[in-house]
Amino acid sequence: MTTAHLVCPKCRHRAASSDANFCTRCGGALRGPPCPGCATPSETGDRFCTRCGAALKPGGAAGRSRGARVSWAAAGIVAVTLSVVLVVRLAPVARSPVAAPPSAPSGTLGPTSAVDLGAMTPRQAATRLFNRVMRSVESGDEAQAQLFLPMAVASYDRIAALTLDDRFHLSLLHAAAGDAASALAVAEAGLSVRPTHLLCLAAAARAAAMGGDAAKARAHYRTLVDAYDEEKSAGLPEYAAGAEEGHAELLPVLRQEASDYLAGSR
User: Fold this and answer.
1) pLDDT number for residue 193
2) 201/195 Cα distance (integer angstroms)
3) Against a cut of 0.70, is the pTM above it?
4) Alpha-helix residue ranges (DSSP H) falling in the chain
C-alpha cells in the first residue's frame, strides 16, 4: 500500500498527512479495513487481502459498507430512543452549525462548517463527530446518522488512551448503530477501571438491556443507584456543570431511569 501520498478516492483531494484515515475535505475514507487474517492494511474498495488473499470485511477503521446500516427498528429503536434522551439532557457541549453530508463540495463537514478535522487533536475530532451523530439521531435524520457513524466510531481508535467519558460516548455510538455487544464491551471496559462510574454504568445497563440480558442490565442499574450519591461527589470532570465535558444535568435522569428499570423488572 502506498502511503507517501494519500489521495481521496471520492473527491481526489490529497491528504496532508500520510497517517490520515479520512479526507479533511469531504470526510471520505482514505484506507480500507485491515485484513482479518494477517492485519495487512488495504486500499478503499479492496475486497481481498493483497498479502494472504483473505476476504476483507466491509467494516473496520475506514468505515462500513452500505450493508452495515443503522438499525432503527426492533432492538435498534431502543438505542435510538435512549440516545435521544441523552442528547436532550447532555450538559453544555460545544455546538456547531448543522453540517451538510461529507459529499458536499466545500468545507470539511459541509459548506456551513470551516472545521478541519485534520487540524484537531484526535479527541477533539472524535467529540465533534460524536456530537454530529447525536444531533442527527436527535432530529430523526437516519441518513445523516448513518453517514457519520462509521467515521465517528473509527475516530475513537485514534485516541491513544480513552478516558471514561470517551468510553461513554463510544458506547452510545455503538448503541445508535444497533451494536449492543460492542456498546456493552466498551462501557464495561470503563467499569473495569472505575466500577462505580455513573455514565459507564448507565451505558452498560442500556447496552445489556438492548442485547436482551436483563439480569446484567439490572445489576448495572442497581450499582448505579447504590453508588450514586458517593460517586456524584467524586468531583470527576464529566460530573461537573458548565464545563464542555460536564454531564451534570444528565446524572439525575440516569438515576431515575435506573430506578424505573429496577421497579419495572421486579
Assistant:
1) 96
2) 8
3) no
4) 75-89, 122-139, 142-155, 164-176, 180-193, 198-210, 214-232, 251-264
